[in-house]
Structure formats: C-alpha cells, structure tokens
Amino acid sequence: MPxxxxxxxxxxxxxxxxxxxxxxxxxxxxxGSDPVVPKAVLSSQQHYAExxxxxxRASIDERVTDLQRTATALNAGKPAEPEDVLSDLGxxxxxxxxxxxxxxxxxxxxxxxxxxIPLAWLDKDVLTGKSALLxxxxxxxxxxxxxMTMALLDRKDGPQQLLIASNSLSVPPITLGxxxxxxxxxxxGEVLATAGxxxxxxxxxxxxxxELEFLQKQMSDLSAQAADRTEEHPVTAKQPGSRGYPGVxxxxxxxxxxxxxxxxxxxxxxxxxxxxxxSVAAGLGLTVVAMxxxxxxxxxxxxxxxxGLIAAGALVVLGLLAAGFLWARVQxxxxxxxxxSRRLARGDLTRPVGAFRGGEAARIxxxxxxxxxxxxxxxxxxxxxxxxGFDGGGGARRAGRTRFGIRVQLVVTxxxxxxxxxxxxLLLNRTDDSVxxxxxxxxxxxxxxxxxxxRVRRAxxxxxxxxxxxxxxxxxxxxxxxxxxxxxxxxxxxxxxxxYVVDAGGEVVARAGGxxxxxxxGKDLPLVRVSGEGGKRPVVQAGAxxxxxxxxxxxxxxxxxxxxxxxxxxxLGEVRVVDAKGRTLAASNGFLAFEExxxxxxxxxxxxxxxxxxxxxxxxGLLLRxxxxxxxxxxxxxxxxxxxxxxxxxxxxxxxxxxxxxxAYEREDRSVLAGLLGLAAIVVCLGWVHLVVARxxxxxxxxxxxLADGDLKAVLYPTxxxxxGAVVRSLELIRQQLQARRxxxxxxxxxxxxxxxxxxxxxxxxxxxxxxxx
Length: 774
Description:
This protein is of the alpha+beta class.
C-alpha cells in the first residue's frame, strides 16, 4: 500500500500540526521576556528619522533648485551688477548664510554677502566633468561644515561668473520633543551636526553632565553604525516585499543609563520617488539619526501569559482526542474492511465477517457478509444468504443503512478542535480601552504631525517664492512670451496645476495649464488662499505681484495631489489638512471636498490647537478612549514664517492604537493568528480526509450493497490506491467470481405441467355435490 495514500497521512499530519501549533502557542503566548525597549517606540524613532531625512532632502534640493532658477532668470534677463544679484537673491530667499559671485576667468571675487566663503576647494573637478557644479560639503577653519551650492551665470554679452551660496548643514528645523536628539552623519559615521543636546554649562549637577556625556558618546557610536548600514542598497537592505520609505532605514538599541535604554532610528537621504526624479541631496551620502532614551520595560510572566501555557495544553488534549477518535472510528474500521475483503477475495469463507459499529463501515461489512454467503453456495441473492437470508455463518444479519456515517464523524472531530480555536481566537487576550499606551507614542504623534505641518507650510511658501521668482520674467505687453514662460515654469514645477496672470480687473492676461479660477486682489486677503467651495475639489491658490505692474498678479494653483503626497507618512495614520472651520482641504487617503472631520473630538482638538498661547498656537496631542478602542490624535496649526502661516490651516492626524507594536495588542493578534492556524489545520486535514477517504468510502458502500443485491454488471474501479481502493479491488474480484459462478451453474430443464381433469356434468338423476361433498 502506498505510504502517502489512505487515511493514515492526514491523521499523522493533523497530529504534527497540532503539536507544532501547541508549541508555537506556548512560545508566543506563554511566559517569556518582553523586549527591553517596546517595538512601538523603536518603530516610532525610525519613522521620526525618516521624516527628518525627507525634510533635510527637500531642504537641500529646494536650495539647489532655487539657486539654479535664479541663475536661469538672470541669464535670460537684463544684465545686472553682482552686488544687485546678491541683494535681490537675499530678499527673495532667506536661507543662505553666505553668497558670493566669482569671475571664472580671473578667479576674483566680484561680490559677497553674509558669511565669508573660502575658495580653496574650487578646482577643475568641481567645475568640469559629470560632477560639475554639484553641491559640495566644505569644512571651514572653525571646524564647521558648510554645504556649497553653485550655479553658472553665463550671459551672452558678459563673462562667465560662478554664483556660490553656502548654508550650514544642520539638523532639519523640526520639533524634537522632550529628551529626543537628532544628528546628521556623513559617510564613515562622522557627526556633522546635532540638535537637542543641552549645553553642559546649563546643567546643575555632575550626574546630569555624566548623563550628557553618555548620550553624546552613544550618539557618536550609533551614528557610525547607522552610517555603515545605510551604505547598503535599499533593495537588499529591506525584507522582500517591504515598502514604505524608499531609502535605507532601521533601528538600533544602545546602552542603558539610569533605567533608560537608548533607542535609535536612522534613515538615509533618498529621493522622494527615485523612478521619477533623482535627488541631488541623496547623492551626498548623509544619514539622519534620531535618538531617544526610553524607559526600560521589566520582563517577567504575568497572569495573561499563563493563559498561553493553558491554551497549549488544552490544544494537545483536544488534538489527541480528535486523532484518537479518527483512529478508532475511521482508520481502524477501514483497515479491518481491507483485511476482510482481501480474505474473501482469496476464497477464505470459513469465518464470518466481523461486525462494525456503524456508518459506511457497517454497511460494507454487512454487504461482505452477504457476499460470503453467496460465495459459499448457501443461496442466490434473493434466497438464503441473500438480503435478510442466511449469512452462511449460523446467524442472520440485515444490511440496513446506519444514521451516523463518516461525515458525521468528521464533523465531531472538527467540533472537538473548534472548541479550542474559537475561544483562543475570539476570547483569549482580548483588549479594550484600558490598554496602556506609552506616553512616547502620544508625544511622537504630536511631534510628527507638527513636522508634517511644517513641511506643508514650507512647500506652500516655496510655491509662492517660485512665483515671485517667475514674476520677474513676466512681460504683460508680450502675451506669447509670457505664456511661454508660464509653460516652462509649469513643466519644471509639478506642484502647480495651472499658472495665469491676472490684471487689476481680475481678467486673465496669460495662462498655462488648467482652467483658471477667480482671483481678487485685496489688501486683507492672504497670498495663499483656498476657494472652490461647493465644487468637487478645493482650489489652493498662491499669488505673487508682478514687479513694475500695478495690480497685476501671477497666480499659481497648487495641485491637491501634491499636498496629499506630503501627508502620506507611514506610522502616522490618517492625516488631513483642514481650514479654520475644520473642513478638509487635503488628506493622505481619499476625502470629499470641505467635508467635516469624522469625529467631534477631532474637531475640538483642532479648535484647541488654534488657541493663541504665548507667541501663537501650538500643537496638541491627545489619547482618546471611546467605544472599547484607543485612538492617538494630534493637531498642529501652521506656525512660523512665510505667507502660508497666515492661511489659518491645521494638520490633524489620528490612528488607532492597535496599530502600534504594543505587547497587549501583539498578544491579541497572536491569539487570533493561533485560532486561524488551528482553523486552517482543521480545513486542510479534515478536508483531505473527506476528499480522499469519505467520498470514495460512501461510493464504495453503495456499490457493495448493489453487488450484494445481485448487480453483477457494474465493474468496480478504485479511485485511489489506498485502503478504500484495496477494498474496491477485492469487491471487483468477488464480483468476477460470482459472475463466473453464475455462468457455470447448469440450467434446469423446464418440467411439463400436469393436465387438470375436465369437470364432467352429472348424469340425470344423480345428485350434485354440495360445498362440503366430494
């Protein structure tokens, strides 16, 4: 008999799966040491580092783009003195620590503003080749590192000049929150800039200074490790199938001090979408590191963890009962049927077929006993030995159908196992709104929301600054030239959906892109505003007055898809931009134009965040417990400089706490997974038994009964080469024997029927016989 066929393999596989699931249950749900630092805290630091890397990359790329755009405008415009170039650049963009114009032919400095820029690093490799005019990191005599950005001024009627702008390579200006520090590391692990560390002079005790030294050393060591890991390719550094941040990111765990363990997240600078646009900043090899001393968790078993051992033991007991039930009610009778049928097929008719308890086995056993009587010559199928006749062994047996077949037995086995799967999956380790959420998660939700708010505000400010730069090229008198300028700007800046020039009366002078919307030039109206209420989508507009043209404004409509892309951050949940009335303007997921927030508590949070406190509104974080669930929410209004700060918008985010890698939620998920795995084992193994054994066995019972009733014409074919198939082959041999016996049995000649005497009429005078006469 094949080793992989029949009833034995599914029962063996079921036992193995039950034992494996019991061991897994005891491993993941039983007593064990919890991680020293919660996974949720580590993941939060990783997301924080990714946000910082995105902000730093966007800042560097914007500086390069702004300088190149300025150089392009100067090359296409009227000749200007170097001093005027730097003055105009400083008024438009307040982002560089120093600017310089250098004559390329003589090497003389023609103009300089701000911090002095050393020129010793300028050589042939910087100005020629594939890496020409790419940003360079230069160390000053003071030890500070500066990022040098260059652009070529090449006018038709003038000498070539090099415009150089330097700025400090500092940590992105984002909210770090309490106790968090951040650093920017170069290739090799050298820390170029840090933020969040307190000055040792401001500390009051030696213990605080020792802790500061410990954290600084940890930052240096872990930054070196992070920089080494970010040298890997993003594809090979991630797990197969993982998505999210396009660069390399991860977590590290440092040393422990005063009950706090250093949790670190790191991320390399990467392009926002490498398939569409390459990032200049991504080629600098920088790594952003976020570090937070987290409270170490105490490891040890709790009452809930003991439930895992109890569940594992209960699974072993129920599994053994289910396997024993299948062995006793399915496997053992099936093997007995195989032996009995083979004995009869070989001609051993001395012993009667043993009795079976019920189900298809009893039906087949009764049919075999009747066939034994037929093979022994005790009678025809309809005579002695036939149905209800002599059994050939001294007793009478009736072959009737039994109520409980193999399908009922499989259902009983499934119920035994479901007695474990259902309670474990639906009742064990269930959580409610009393789950303890680390305060770090609430703080990180608030700080990351503020970071997204700052990112959106800066993007709108950059959009308006781009319009200011482009407005210098607008010539109202030449419509065709102006439209060409607008088309070129629209092609270079994907953030705009439409660009158009509006005169003092509100009429569109020139346009490019989509259909323009109304724009009113009022003194009290902000340069960044929203319109389109009542339509299918909000219309976000930014304007810049055209120089020397009174009442003429260059208007750009920022695409909602661009704003939506700024809000999509892993680990932050649902993120929306709302106006002062709490109406949605953009969202990380789908939304309806100007719809309200889904919960009243979120609207109240937005209103509370907009309250003036001190210098202005501040971000707020909140832990909402309602309806058995826990939600972490935060709101951060636009604050800071730029024209977008006057829009009165707020970024609000929220997510369910069950997304966090908290021990309570992880145990609940593991319990559900254990129940699902048990259910899968039931479906696989019992479905295997049903397909391979139950269905062929039911068909065999019907065929055996027909054969015992005298149907010798139907040939029996085995479906599988297993126990059931062996019984089918034996029945086929018995059928052939019965058929041969019937063909060899001589037929009796028909006997003539005796003639009946014809009745005679009585003679006259003779009496007739009455009813009782003769």
